[in-house]
Write a structure and sequence with these properties.
The complex is a heterodimer. Chain A has helices spanning about 5-20, 30-50, 95-115, 120-140, 145-155, 155-165, 170-200, 210-215, 240-255, 265-270, 275-300, 300-305, 310-330, 330-355, 355-385, 400, 405-415, 425-440, 445-470, 480-485, 495-510, 515-535, and strands at about 65-80, 85-95, 210, 235, 240. By secondary structure, chain A is mainly alpha-helical. Chain A has a three-stranded mixed β-sheet. A two-stranded antiparallel sheet of chain A has the order 4-5. In chain A, helix 15 packs antiparallel against helix 18. Chain B is mainly alpha-helical. Chain B has a domain at about 295-505. Helices cover about 75% and strands about 0% of the residues of chain B. Chain B has a two-stranded antiparallel sheet. In chain B, helix 3 (about 45-70) runs antiparallel to helix 4 (about 90-110). Chain B is globular. Classes of the chains: A mainly alpha, B mainly alpha.
Chain lengths: ~525, ~500
Amino acid sequence: MNLLTLLIFTPVLFGLVILLLPSSLRASFKYITLFATLLQLCFSIYIYLHFQTGAAHAGISNEGQYQFMQKLPWISLDLGTVGKMQIEYFVGIDGISVTLLVMAALVMVVAAIASWEITSNLKGFFALFLLLDMAVMGVFCALDFFLFYTFYELMLLPLYFLIGMWGGARREYAAIKFFLYTLFGSVFMLLVMVGLYLSVKDPVTGSHTFNMIHMMNPANYIDGSVFSVLNHATILGMPARTVGFVILFIAFAIKVPVVPLHTWLPDAHVEAPTPVSIILAGVLLKIGGYGIIRICMGIFPEVALSGAFWLGLLGVISILYGAFNALAQRDLKRMIAYSSVSHMGFVLLGIASNTAEGISGAVLQMVSHGFLSTMLFFLVGVIYGRVHDRDIYNFRGLGTLMPRYTVYVMVAFFASLGLPGFSAFVAEAFTLAGAFKSHSVNGLLPYWMAICGTVGILLSAAYFLWTLQRMFFGTISLKGGEIWKTALTDLNLRETVTLLPLALIALALGIMPALVLGKINDSVLALVAFTQNALGK
Amino acid sequence: MKDLLPYITGQINDVISSIGLFMPEVYLTVLFIIVLVTDLLFGKKSAKLCRIVASAGILLVIFKDLQQVALTGAYALPIFNGMLVLHRTAIAFKFIVDILAFALLLYFAWDKKLQEHKKGLSDLYSIVIGSVLGLHLMTMAINLLSVYLAIEFVSIASYLLASYRTENAKTTEAGLKYVLFGAAASAVMLYGISLIYAYSGSLDVYSKEMAAGLMQTNTFSVSFALSLVFIGIGFKLSFVPVHFYVPDVYEGAATPVTAYLSTLPKIAAFALVVNFVAPFVAQQGFYTNWKGFDFRLTLSAIGILTMVVGNFAAVLQNNVKRMLAYSGIAHTGFALMALVTFTPQGLTALTYYLLMYGLANIAALALANYFENNESITNMSDYKGLGFKYPLASVCFVVVLISLTGIPVSAGFTGKVFVFSAVYGVYQQTHNVWLLALLITGAVTTVVGLFYYLKVPLNLFLKRSEFTPNEISYSTNLVVFSSVIALLLIIFGILPDLLIKFL
């Protein structure tokens, strides 16, 4: 049995078990889910430990260099004169995906623990949770575009129900907005995907293939096909490959989210229950970044490079716009949601620089933000679970009331704002270094972008510290008075056990970024070389 | 008369040899008579028996359909002096029609209102079997005469079905509306046919005489005549602009009848269009350089219009049946997209898509029917919170609607991918802007589609309301029925290979 396949489908098996169990056993569902996610975490750690590094295992555009691969024929359809359609169940990982996989598995465990707060319709909740888990893992592992798309879309429906059924007051609006936004991006992605597979032929079998790695090699494109590199075909008067890149980029940019396509995010975050917020921020946003690296850069490298300035610009706008918005929020969860927009902007900036530093920084930022945003949303969930309020101005002096809680908040805040010693610092420093270097190495990004990025860090310090000051310092003064005071107990054991590993990981990644960088380095170098080559042609 | 004598032997021989290729239809004819006789012999209590006979008979017919695959191979065989033609696509369509007819025969009796019909359902079964015979003819007709006869055959059966149960003024109005518009549409079509006959002196679409006649005639006149014929066919396909009767009739008719009307005649009409258009668009044929009537352009424009109108109108609906009526119109538009490729691959995509649409639509209406039976509600806004009262039915509803939207993992999605790739393949060769426009419209309207399909799960699960804990739940049959279909839709979504080789 292939490990990745196990990793992907373990949750859904447990999901089936939950569906089949009678509702009288509903108290056990959370333990089953937790067990499933822990099992998955074990698999992913095993994969991480056995992941080979070295230039011979870089992956990216070399199929042979991917690891833990499994390839099975899935759908094949005779297309008559056009050839044959070949869809495979094809999974495998390289340096870009392996660390994200571990991060996602850990976030899922935390989300499962955070699900303790859910009290209604447990069967539905945990079944959907595990379905979502499967889809997320599948996206990071899939190397066949059709398979990727299937998993990608499969995430939408569980999320719609998770937000819509267990969410807050405006949950219906938030759920449908999220669904429509994402689907809008992905139906066009479907068109590009179909176009790509009709343009590409498997060099061995000679049939049309959805294999992403074949799509990365210009030699596999059929002469005269729409997306052929040499053909310079146009769609409605625009270069076809540019159109393809832009459509895919928009689909992923909605997920990241990149300003101005971010408006679903604050709504979805605010309305979603804590575990779903954690998954959204921790994992789903990374799928956007991952998609841009794997698919947009992989399949359309020359367009990505020529449009790098615009990618960088969007990244910078996201950093600044997200930060300014975060400053203006009263709702703690909304503030953190906007901080996510800001932090994910660094990912885009790093990718746009197309330097080894920048892309390493981008991947590291995704991993680090995965852990930190999980921590932040879990912390918000703690306070919201106790008093059902999270308006920043309704709390004051929490530091004396909940000292241990405050310690974790401070760790999370300081780590997020880029304090040296924590993961976000290394990640942001790398992306900015990449952005600075880009001007002299490949001339893609001007210096001012890196400078604006630095301003973003400053702003993030402002909103985090200001929030800390408003909510946690000073004398105790709560909107709910004595009732709140008794309700706001300090962290219990379950919460501590969840938060402590996250805090330690944030610290560990800050002190030893090699834990991530060591695994991704070869793939990043291969990616940079690959894109440079594409431009040379 | 004397001049014809030498031909008679040949013609009779042809008819006799054709019968061998006509077995499913012969079986259907016999089945029709048996059901009718059963009804007469056993009187009012015969409904159950008729249903068993009819369903078993249809299974036999399906078996006969499959036997024909080996008979024809890759060739198209003209039968009855070129009145009908038997080929792979026709067999695939017949197969789809029979499968869906079988599902419908099971389903009719589960509607509470039809069940309470004082005349019983025996007649209904014989009408359905009769109409299936007509549908079979539609899938094979290539002579304008047989085209017209087949359409009328189905129309008359549909009129009867549509007003089978009339309980109030509204349903009567719907039935009457259907008959009147149907009669008008067929008159228009007949006019078109007579014009074509006048231009060419032939009724056989595949004949050289017709090609010669049409190519000599003024382009405008030919286009006019063909448009009239398309209006007649379009009435069955329910594309825009001849769709206006659809919502009222679908809403007024009994729900299982709506399921019938929204699937079977539409699917057979697609087969008819395929046959009708084939000679005009063939790569090599009589019409190779004929520029008289651009079928691709016309059908693409209609397809785009139908998708847009159908989807946007569906957004505004509150009644489930009306919503599904408009969504059915939208699906016609999408299926037209597969049709305009005019390639074998496009036809495979079309048949697959139509079968999946048919299954999903029948299941969706069956579930609407379930809620109608149990709670006497037909508006989506009344579904509030019922997802917790009827969990299985509601989950099935979600699966079915997801398939209709075309989101993975569901058969609707694979169907959509097949259609998109068929169209894209042709676009890549021809760079026809209309095909690109179709692709983009298809993608955009999918998002619109999601918006109204999601209204059902939205009300079922997301909105909360107090409901009285269950008294008695009726119609478990319907839930089982739709669960099976929902399961099939997921299975075919994951493994379309199981099915696609038959189409």
